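sry for the spam today, last one i promise. struct tokens for design, 416 residues
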């Protein structure tokens, strides 16, 4: 069979709905200034689907620095990979400031979070080593683990007893191969909003010899007394061997970094193929991220404002008996029961009649019969945004429970 013919017959679980849903449910086109209110399909909507936690994405001070850096440097500088011709004192300063902020000895920048994590896992382990990881880890971790040529064991999500058992299995293997164990978890799970059980997992080091890599994309800047993340929040930052976070969440930018002791970061710097064979992070992003980090460190009110919104939203949802799972972070999931068709009707109603925009997650990402609406609060939101959203959610839940969304119209029929 011709390759393209084969692909055309199986466009994937989302691609098969492209003709009917692209531009609305999939690849929606948001317009206007980045903020808590944006334009979608010709109307202003309250935006709960942008990871702009601290409101820095459209902050005047940030916009000014981003603009000036683009004028000063352009997007091309520096050219080439950092190893060959793309290193600067600005990159190195940002790295050291990041390391200091997350209480580690050293740090290294990477261009993208997904790319960086994938490459780091490939770089850190060989076929003699064993990876143990949480079953709910982000796609970048799962895909990195898939590249691993040795053994890998997934433990049940946030289940320390299950992690213990997987580590026990791993030890038996590395005792024979002479390899090592890398455990990978997350500081905050971006779909459910639960913090990873870092304290309990790090305590397993007393029983087993392993190193821990923590993806703290959603915790960096939002958790901990200073914003250093889930490890700081749980009092175990010292126990994290390799700390990873992106700039795409609390700093509303592009790029990511790893932090740890000097030897480990030097190893990544000299062996991570995604950076060795890719162009250096452009100067406007480096300078812009430096400004964002400086603001994150010097303006605690940004995180305080964020948590005022988080607390108001999550408290309001609980008071109305919505199921928000076990979230203990800014990520706010709302679980309801219903079919995929009902979910699309519900979301259409939210967007068109209540002017609320939030992400929808359905089967096969989560089990059949469950609808997950994920809300991302930010410091840019207001109490009016929260109150209007609570009113809207109450109304659509009533319609869902009364079966109003069971009538599938032509606009969403393809989502059956």
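last one done:
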């Amino acid at each position: 069979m011709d390759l393209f013919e084969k692909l055309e017959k199986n466009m994937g679980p989302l691609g098969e709905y492209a003709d009917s849903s692209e531009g609305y449910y999939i690849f929606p086109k948001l317009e206007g200034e980045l903020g808590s209110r944006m334009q979608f399909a010709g109307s202003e909507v309250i935006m709960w689907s942008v990871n702009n936690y601290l409101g820095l994405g459209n902050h005047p001070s940030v916009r000014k620095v981003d603009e000036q850096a683009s004028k000063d440097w352009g997007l091309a500088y520096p050219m080439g990979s950092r190893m060959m011709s793309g290193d600067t004192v600005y990159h190195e300063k940002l790295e050291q400031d990041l390391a200091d902020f997350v209480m580690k000895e050293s740090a290294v920048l990477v261009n993208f979070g997904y790319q960086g994590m994938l490459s780091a896992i490939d770089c850190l382990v060989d076929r003699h080593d064993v990876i143990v990881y949480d079953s709910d880890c982000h796609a970048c971790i799962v895909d990195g683990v898939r590249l691993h040529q040795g053994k890998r064991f997934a433990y049940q999500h946030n289940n320390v007893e299950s992690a213990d058992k997987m580590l026990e299995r791993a030890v038996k293997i590395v005792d024979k191969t002479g390899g090592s164990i890398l455990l990978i978890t997350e500081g905050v799970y971006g779909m459910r909003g639960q913090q990873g059980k870092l304290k309990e997992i790090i305590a397993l080091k007393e029983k087993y010899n392993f190193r821990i890599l923590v993806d703290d994309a959603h915790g960096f800047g939002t958790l901990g007394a200073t914003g250093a993340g889930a490890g700081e929040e749980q009092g175990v930052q010292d126990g994290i061997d390799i700390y990873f976070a992106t700039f795409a969440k609390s700093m509303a930018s592009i790029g990511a970094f790893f932090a740890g002791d000097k030897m480990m970061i030097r190893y990544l710097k000299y062996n991570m193929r995604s950076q060795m064979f890719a162009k250096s992070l452009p100067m406007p992003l480096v300078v812009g991220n430096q400004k964002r980090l400086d603001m994150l460190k010097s303006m605690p009110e940004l995180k305080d404002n964020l948590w005022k919104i988080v607390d108001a939203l999550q408290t309001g949802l609980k008071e109305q008996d919505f199921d928000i799972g076990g979230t203990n972070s800014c990520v706010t999931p709302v679980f309801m029961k219903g079919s995929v068709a009902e979910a699309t009707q519900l979301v259409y109603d939210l967007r068109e009649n209540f002017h609320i925009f939030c992400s929808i997650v359905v089967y096969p990402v989560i089990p059949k019969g469950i609808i997950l609406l994920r809300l991302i609060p930010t410091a840019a939101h207001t109490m009016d945004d929260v109150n209007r959203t609570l009113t809207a959610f109450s109304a659509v839940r009533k319609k869902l429970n009364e079966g109003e969304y069971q009538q599938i119209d032509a606009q969403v029929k393809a989502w059956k």
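The CA atoms of residues 103 and 237 lie 7 Å apart. ok im logging off now
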